[in-house]
Design a protein that fits this description.
324 residues, homopentamer, rod-shaped, 7 strands, alpha+beta, 11 helices
């Protein structure tokens, strides 16, 4: 689906509403500030082919964009670029991270953005840019920046959601209310998955920051450096979360063992408390003829008393040991 | 066994059926687009020697190709190259990865491919190329690309098979249906093995991508970069799987301990439930002369009732504790 | 809040008390030794905008300084720099590390320091510098050094506090007085967090040390190298602490298991000690007509003696095994 | 002990039997293909001093060769080189790796090899070379290659031996026949030790491969690259083995816990099976006057039957639970 | 304390006994072979200031030397250097590594060594050098080499001491004589600490080896390379020890669990062995009127026999299971 198709010149949109890609491709200008931006969402193969022909996109890049499920990357083809980004969205109810993909074809005078899967659209980035003609007239590089910036900003709620879940899991572990092993494992799985979306992005951003892409001038480079710092911060957070989840799983294992110790001690105490009076009873169940206690009136009450005393003494003893 | 032996010029196969290697070697041309491709499968030593002499292959490379069991690598000998690739195929029934090897000798005007072990042949790559004369006329470099591309594409079903197995193992761990330790271990073993097939391939691909091989021109380099990205994605997937399997083993250990706690609690509850009425019985088994209860009609039923009550009370108590 | 605003020339403060930022900006000099230093603490957005306009600070840097929660970094904008530092303060009672942030805008003739959150102020660094005119006349670079030096020096009490806690935790683990799992986990969490404050600082310091910043001359570089060494030492300490905490958690797990073994042995010994006399009693509780012992006067005392002997023998036996 | 001392010219040994080192040193030629090779085995200090003086070996290298226990390395002294190699031999009975050391002094026109400890000699490498005059006339570099090649080839049986042991250990773990913890640990210890012999060799080999040693010409470089690939493969194998042994230890721990669960369940089942009939017996051991069952002929057989039934029912119940 | 203060020219000490630092500073020569060496041990601040003024040492280096507790490093100040080394000494009784520090100020014509803490002095290095005029006349670089060499040589007994302890710990783990968890932990702590003393030394040594310090000529570089190799070997040993201690802790944990299994099996066997005869006794303790066995003379001995047989049979059974 073609979401929007616009022509910008000198930082200003040249018309209202979307135009046709053919119209757009005919308007591709020479100057940096004069370009068209076509936004696609889950395009059909026909749409991709049509756009690829109009803008002469490279066969390999088009193939990647059709199949999606690429890793984040930046590929340069002489005077054009192909950029893959992973978007992430955190579903709090299911504690899962949903991933989408944005592919960008950038060349002189045009930018084609292809969005795959649900998730935040690029409309926000487009509107934000249209309000900043000073940036927008930097040409497609500014659009790339705005999109990467939005994608990376959208990572923040994901790390925050995971942070909240880690805190809940810590509480579950240390208050021993519920068994958090499964939850910890699947959180870690999410974090590993998320790391794979963020981490490969750092190398292309490094390359842009260090001036490796001539199409990005010094001033735009600073904007990319700013995004790069945010991405690095996200990546460091993700690494910390991974380490924390490993530690919390270990802590949980230790506490399960400690809990088992408690249970064993408690049970054993009660077993001892019942075993002693049972023993006393079996003594007086012996059939010896000459057991003087058996013939005394006071024998039975004394035996019962002895049993009661043994229970009390043992209970106190184990309570002092802290076993019950 | 010589599988196929063909002469290509300008991207077009010059004849039907295979020719003899001697015929092929006599046709080795000067121009990039004019070359022969000989495909061998598990060749005998005699075949290797024959081919080596015809194309003047380097002694060390030939030795490696005869012995197989090399690590993936790219070696250059002045104007020719020796490339080792590991093929992987996933057997779902046994949950094992089967490895094969493809060795490529590439020089001006010729390419010799040597395939070891079972596994996908190169016929697919050959047919695909023959349909793309624009690529095929790039010469042997295009053939190398097509083969590497096929090998790396064949890694994908392997990672997917392992992904499926990991999901089954997770289910086994968290539903506690079966004991998955052995399965987890052997899955991890497969993943470690697979990593060794994929990882060493990244360095040669990096070298080609960065233009280190002059025989690969700028356009072909892009095709290799595309393969390289897929290989890196496979490698990142493999690393995630390794980490997941480590985590799932730890989670399993925690759950085994938790399960043991449950068992101990359950058992202890039942022991307590039987110990109390047994104690009551032993009290009335005592032989004191003066035990008034013994002489009352109602004594026995009351004792039985006391036993029953103790069983019910204890059962409720442990049920409330969540122990049974 | 504007904390101080001073004009320095030739290493000497040119006036007492703070001046207005407007006054300060009008005094910005040409020479390295002639500069103004404005100190802000938790500034309002209006204050930041006012300062940004006066000194022509870069939009992105100002945005970062307003939002705080950046990672330590050094960004250069042609002739000016933006530096982010994380301050750390250890609260001993709660065993937590509290983090603050200092952002520095450095340009020719001015330095703006923005402090976020509670924590040590920069007054100490300012006074220390004012007593060292030889350093102060090196210009803003000397101020940056003094601030970084103070921030890194303030890391030391944090690592020392954590070291003390690790020692307490070790004692808890090996004296088995209390259950330290939770404490170990949260200490590790602090250490991971602290690592994230210190580690990203090393790269910018390396860059200054290796002469990557022309505004810092060779002599100042040595001062930064000294700070860099301290920061690296802190980072190595933090890494050791992380490893120690991992090990102590593992040691704790082993000791919990060992403790469980002890408990099981002890309990089982007592169970055996009571089971044997109970068995003896049940033997003489049998109702056979012809049990000669039952009819002998000495039967009962002998039975009691046998029970006592069995208890003593078993007790000695288990004591020798070291089980009780 | 001087094992052999030979003079080679143009790839051909110039005499039968060994000559004296003095004779050899006097024959040191100018041309690359004209050199002497002296082989020592566990030389006395006097022998080392004598050789050192004859060939003007560097004091530090000689000291290292006398003390042995160096790490693998390549040191260059202007026109001569000192190389240290670790040999490894696997003793299958004891599952231990025995290490030896070979030190090589290489200069223009001479090569002194010093072998320490038991283990394969260099005779094989010498004979192999003497059959390959084309290589041998490349001079001492060819001899170095032949020795390194043999040393690295001898690593292969070590990794294979360890592979076999790992398979045995896996069987022990998963068939739960024997307790493999100690064996796993000492295998891991061997692997760590072996890694230390192989790993430091990679850097010198890399240096030779990349042409860092001018005494090794382009053709010989290929031979070293071949050895380097084998060494890298060994190193990757060793790393996999290390990881496998870590995993198998973890798997073993999990299975020990699982086994404990089984034992606890089994034991508890039997305890319950005996507790219920014991309880029945104690009920009828009560001394109430009015227990109608006691006076009926059928009482006793019914009680015994009830006991038998309880045993059977409980047995079936626990068998269905899978506990016994 | 000033330990020694000597003037060397052409590799020969120019006088007996120590001279005053003032005298020494006045003798500082131009030529490399003409220098003074002042050795301090735990100097007072006054002594440091006096020396710093005489030799014009850099403020920052002097501050570091006064505070000690620096990390190993090499700092160059134009024509002079500041070097920090960590000395290590192993106390076998307490199994602890004691660390000291040596700071070296090296400039043209002088070397000031400052030793902190107990531990081996530098007298050995001084005497060894005085016997080697050929080295000593290389100037202060030779002295630096001799000191670094001694410091690194002194690391060897530390690693050997730790190796011995690891072997003892292994024995404790696998012979299950004592509980080694605490000892393993504190050994690991020592190893981590030791790593921090050795590891940072490698970077400065690398820098000297690669010729980064012009004051060290090619010949001296070889001597430093030799020390560097020893330091690297120590560092690799330390890393192995760290890994071994991690593994031995894991092995210990596994064996503790295995031991628990053994105990549980043994205990359960004995419980069963006593439970069965107790059950038999309670059967004949029942009060049924019609229990024919009770009235037969042979009843009691048969019952006792049945008990004895059950004990023997069960004992044999559990012995065959390997539980007792």
């Amino acid at each position: 689906m073609i979401v929007d198709c616009a022509h910008y010149r000198g930082g200003v949109r040249q018309h209202e509403g979307a135009m046709s890609p053919e119209e757009a491709s005919s308007r591709v200008g020479d100057a940096q500030h004069d370009f068209v931006w076509i936004g696609l969402h889950d395009p059909t193969d026909e749409e991709m082919v049509r756009i690829a022909e109009l803008f002469n996109l490279h066969e390999l890049a088009v193939e990647d964009a059709e199949h999606a499920h690429q890793r984040p990357k930046l590929e340069d083809y002489d005077d054009s670029f192909f950029i893959v980004l992973k978007t992430a969205h955190y579903h709090d109810e299911t504690e899962t991270v949903h991933f989408g993909e944005i592919d960008l074809f950038v060349g002189p005078g045009y930018l084609v953005s292809v969005r795959h899967g649900v998730g935040t659209g690029l409309r926000g980035a487009r509107l934000r840019l249209e309000e900043r003609p000073d940036l927008l007239k930097q040409g497609p590089a500014a659009v790339v920046w705005a999109i990467v910036d939005q994608v990376v900003d959208d990572y923040l709620p994901v790390t925050e959601g995971i942070d909240d879940d880690i805190e809940e899991v810590e509480q579950a572990v240390f208050d021993e209310e519920s068994e958090p092993t499964e939850r910890i494992y699947f959180l870690k799985r999410e974090v590993i998955e998320f790391h794979r979306a963020v981490w490969p992005l750092l190398a292309p951003l490094d390359r842009i920051e260090s001036g490796g892409i001539t199409a990005v001038d010094a001033e735009m480079t600073r904007y990319f450096r700013d995004v790069g710092d945010h991405a690095r911060r996200i990546d460091e957070t993700v690494n910390s979360q991974r380490e924390l989840l490993t530690s919390v799983l270990e802590a949980n294992l230790a506490l399960v063992s400690v809990g088992q110790n408690e249970v064993v001690k408690q049970i054993s105490s009660w077993a001892a408390i019942i075993a002693v009076p049972t023993f006393i009873a079996s003594v007086y169940g012996m059939n010896f003829e000459h057991m003087p206690e058996l013939h005394q009136r006071i024998g039975y009450p004394v035996a019962l008393l002895a049993m009661a005393v043994s229970v009390v003494v043992l209970s106190l003893f184990f309570r002092r040991l802290g076993w019950i």
